[in-house]
Amino acid sequence: MNRFRGVKVLKFALLAVVFVTVLGFVVMSLWNWLMPALFGWHPITFWQAIGILILSKILFGGIRGGRGPGHHWRRRMIERWEQMTPEQREEFRKGFRGFGSVGRPDSASGTTSHPTP
Predict the structure, then answer these.
(1) pTM metric for this prediction
(2) Which residues form the domain of 31?
(3) CA distances from 92 to 34, 41, 78, 114 (A)
């Protein structure tokens, strides 16, 4: 069983290296295609593209592994939803029907909703 775990780890590491390499070449190609033409900047090397990827990961937190911070909220909402009665679920839905409908006609009153200052 341990041998299969080692194979899985090796496959994952190989895929990670391939993924980072391909992503580095994509960033390098896009940079070298767009930036010199648009802004007059110098082309970059593969390693500089990898550095840009690492910097963007540090600054913006992209390319997350795992489930992320939203997973706990979602699990908690699912648990609450399962404990609700059908009447409570309908009341909950009513509370969210108008959510995000700024500028759209309100179905109940026929008026247009506007944000309040």
Answers:
(1) 0.50
(2) 2-60
(3) 48, 53, 13, 22
